[in-house]
Write a structure and sequence with these properties.
5-stranded antiparallel sheet; Immunoglobulin-like; 17 strands; alpha+beta; Aminopeptidase; 2 domains; 23% strand
Length: 375
Amino acid sequence: MTISINSCFDGGNIDCIACDNPNNIRLKIKPDAGHEFFQWFYFRMTAKAGQSYTLRIENASDSSYPKGWDNYRIVTSCNQQDWFRLPAEYDNGSLSFTVNPVSDVVWFAYFTPYPMQRHHQLIAKTAAVANVAVRSLGTTLDGRSLDLLRIGNPDARLKIWSIARQHPGETMAQWWMEGYLAGLTDSNNAVARELLKSAVFYVVPNMNPDGSVRGYLRTNAAGCNLNREWDSPSMEKSPEVYLVRQKMHETGVDFNLDVHGDEALPYNFIAGTEGINSWTPQRLALQNKFKNNLQRLNPDFQTEIGYPVTPAGAANYGICSNYIAERFTCPAMTLEMPFKDTVDTPDVRFGWSARRSVLLGRSCVDAIYSVVDFL
């Protein structure tokens, strides 16, 4: 049976150099627009079940985050429903892995994919809830809708924003959104009911639908890294940030979570905004309160390991959280999840997974509740 490698579908990314030898299937990740970033891959292999195949991604060492391959395990599925981890070896610049599939078709990905059809289903499901409004803020460069969900009364005292997937390859961020939205819209959830008495939630589940469909790691259709565009976005290069920022200025922001994934660090953590000009001890206390409460609510989250703290006054205002924290003088944080497994709470079969991302999203609803009286 001929071996076939294909990534011509929503979110797909791989180039096949050669697949005539089952012991050396040679692959290459395609770069984003602008050719600056690449690491995300997602493809399928059609081949005879019950045989061994070895695949090699030959340009792994040239990827955006080569340290991301250390102790990394491939995500794979034979049915597009159950995704589990497969051992991989990073050596001599290549990432290689061997599979003995039980089906004639098998999929491989950097993390569990989140296809655009599922995004539409998430929007439709959430829109059916009584206190939810859906708005299209405008369209992307490829003509896709940029969707905003409003949960609760727009006249509420607090305006709480959450956005995800500025970097489209960080699909765990949109899985997180499923748990977050489920928690906020569950009529049996007493925490959500109490939150919505004083707060309205504005949620953008996917900030970068073009990059998501194109199979990019970090950029939109114009090759822009959206999380470096917040100080000066434009409709020509970064309409996604321009439109969301415009709406934020219309509503105001009292709290913001920007949800991401990190390639190298095997931890869930918060990156704060200590480098902004208006940083205060009071902001640090609230940020620590949120982090500590989230750790108590969900042991998959930790507070010891993360990015180095930016020195005072050295913030990059092109980054979402820094821009929002400074412009709206409010708490704004970046939540990072791993592409690998968590070191402290490992799962041998699934690693850090879509399901665990969902559960962390739900925990964040409770963590916000724990600080809402201090906003």
